[in-house]
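FAQ: What does the model actually see?

It sees only this:
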Amino acid sequence: MKTNIFLIHTYYHLYLSINLIFDRYKDYNNVIYYTKNHRASRDFSNELPFLEFKYFEKGKFGTKSFLNSLLNYKAERFFFFQENCSESIYLVHKLSKKGVIISLLQDGSKPYHTYKKKRLLYCVLRDTINDYKQMINRRAVVTTVFFHNNYKYAFLKPIKEVWLSYPERFVNRTRKLIIKMPEFSSESIKYLASLFQFDMERMNSECIFYLGENLKKEYVQIENKIVEFIINRYSGVKIFYKMHPNQMKNSPETVNWLRNVKNVEIIADDIPAELYILSMRKGLIISRSSTTMLTNNPRCKYYYTHKLYSGGRLFSQIEMGNPTDYIKEIDNLEEIVM
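And it is asked to produce this:
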């Protein structure tokens, strides 16, 4: 069997990788290297013949020893998500020299953003220098001298393929081969549900799913007003509030207030929010600007509220990318309708 290697850091990366494997690569040996962090802390095991999970230690994968472990597979493709770190840069360059096809998978809405950096050249030089310092400290230096422009998606030269859910909305400035990501299949959804022991019937009636985010103090009151509006307008509808992993640590005000609201259920588990969305029968999905909402459930309505967070530093140097036709970016709360 031919082999593919996947390098993932989050559950979002995991569920995209699983769906791609089920759609395209069930006749391959697919090795998923995963790390654990505050947002993705589970261990995974599997009995499928075409899928294998392997753990790697966070911050220690840009090394010669880890590279050698990957080279032993003689893989056809290397799939990864985060090109803006020195570890990925090192692996991508070294693997491409051995004939491995380098494939960048969509990392949320990042491919569709427009950056408005005031000091772009300074930022590029700073990032490049920092990346090389890190590689030198690990004694794993990429000898090719080039600028690390993290504000131009798919900037790494060895990348041959870029996999996107919305290729028609992507500005292909680096002239890569663009491949459309497959739609979610019932088979991959069923497998993901079993992997996380998630009940797909949990949200089988009309409801509202609100994605909390880890906000700076200056924006917490704005989010509270948005959530309060939704609670008052839809007092007879069940509201599921999915906490951000860092929310209780950095901005617990909203969660503490919602604990006493009768039609609100707070979700604090580590199950990917995408599974909740895919399981919904009907309702609303609302967030400030979460990339989770790129998971399309045509039975639901989607709303971005980021335009209501005016002032401050939020999105001061970035124009939010919304590649979809189904997420509505509202200018006032009255636009939210069931």
